[in-house]
Amino acid sequence: MQNTIIPNQDIFETLNSARQNKRDYIAMSLWPDIPGTKITATTHEFWSLTTVLGTIKNLDIKTYQSSSTIGNILRKYAPTDMLPAQKFELLHNHMHVIEITDKSMNAEISRYAAWAIMKEIGKKYNTTFQQEYFLTPNPNPGQIFAHTRQIARIATRDTVSKYQKQLNGILGHLTKQQQYFADFHKQLSGWLFPNTTIKNIQRHYHISENKPLADYMNDELITAFANALKNIVEKFDNLPQTKKTYDNLYQIAQQEMTAARQPFIKENDAPELNICTTSVDGVIADRKKREQTFVNKYIYEKVR
What does the domain layout of the chain look like in residue ranges? Predict the structure, then answer.
């Protein structure tokens, strides 16, 4: 994407400027004072806990300023085969308390700790950018933005499935003929891609014919598709009971899908260009693999 303002660049700059390094010198001998003893140096990164938590809008940071809470989070995302004694040491290794007051606690936390905390908070708040920042050593904002765009497809695909099920429920009330279900969903795609067919798109991008095209839409297109489905369901639900007919549902769907197509025509001629070669399942698998590699590398580091 050219000339694009990267969202969350302020978060990137905050975390980057807050990153600190600590070098540990380890003598590879029982008698380190003997001349010629080999000494190695390792560098450990750490961040201020309050700074990391402060990047999340509307978060009550006190909830995560407890050693016991953080310890539980660190152990939660540790490898399942990690020894109990090693899990017990995680809090000591990855967090160093530097300030305790009546109202709050601050600490130095490792890259692993920061990622684990962001992943846990991500169940309630959007912390995708922060997770990707800590998951990707020495990234630039563009790299993180590219990852977050891929990850955004996951939740939006679930939203599409939700509204598709609601549409099927509506169709079930309007007609008992299964053929109408297939024809209706086929027509939705026809309005979104009137200049081609789903089979042609699948053939062009080497997508299996038995895979839903929504699995391969990029973040912008699948968001537009989800919003169109949402509008169809809501507008039909708001019709008077006497007007809740198949023909009116068909008309609403045509209007919404045609409207969803327009921004893509203005941007790059057609939404057919907003298709990815990697499916949503592929994005999920790739992220799990990257997280596993990250944990295996950083969980044995020590912030002090």
Answer: 9-139, 147-273
